[in-house]
């Protein structure tokens, strides 16, 4: 092993713990590179769709991650029709890429959504008050308004949980790249090394 590489990057368990630590930091630290992630889904014609979402939660055992969306959004319709999705995280300073693949579950009018709504800031809640809905064609950038009725706004709020099926980790380094795959095997993430 090249002495310049972090020693724990030759240990699958340590790599998995680092992934968990970076994801948890991404939930709580807005400056973390893992706070924003690219979400990939498929439209009704099977074409890939990408957008950025804010990481809002991560299971301690890396069983799931979560984010919020508007029930009127295209991503909500796409995930309802085809829940298979992927998420991409990248931190350039650390040269680490993490890809997650899994199945999305939409929580709208249930206790999961209500708990997430109650933890949301007033500014975050205001995102769901905009009229018309996300993606609607408008004549001018200011051709929108905000709905004031909280119950109407609340019903647009969706917490999406993604049950993690696979995690792929890539570390880029001049002294030798490292790549690992972790697959959910009966509730446990089993790891193996891949050629970078």
Q: How would you describe what is shown here?
A:
By secondary structure, the protein is α+β, with helices and mostly antiparallel strands. The protein has a single domain, classed as Electron Transport, Fmn-binding Protein, Chain A (Pnp Oxidase, Chain A). The chain is built from 5 helices and 11 strands; from the N terminus they run αββββαββααββαβββ. It has helices spanning 12-28, 74-81, 111-119, 122-126, 150-154; strands spanning 36-42, 48-54, 57-58, 64-70, 84-91, 96-107, 130-131, 145-146, 157-171, 178-185, 188-194. Strands 1, 2, 3, 4, 5, 6, 9, 10 and 11 form a 9-stranded antiparallel sheet that branches. Strand 1 and strand 2 (48-54) form a beta hairpin.
Question: Concise description?
Answer:
The chain is α+β, with helices and mostly antiparallel strands and 196 residues long.
| Order of helix and strand elements from N to C terminus | HEEEEHEEHHEEHEEE
What's the CATH superfamily, by name?
Electron Transport, Fmn-binding Protein, Chain A
Structural class: alpha+beta
What is the typical, i.e. mean, pLDDT?
93
The 3D shape can be described as elongated
Stretches where pLDDT falls below 50 for ≥5 residues? none
Please state roughly what percent of the residues sit in beta strands, choosing from under 5%, 5-15%, 15-25%, 25-35%, 35-45% or over 45%. 35-45%
Number of domains: 1
What is the level-2 CATH architecture name? Roll
The overall strand count is: 11
Question: And the CATH topology?
Answer: Pnp Oxidase, Chain A
Number of DSSP helices? 5
Helix content: 10-25%
Sheet with most strands: 9 strands, antiparallel
Radius of gyration: 19 Å
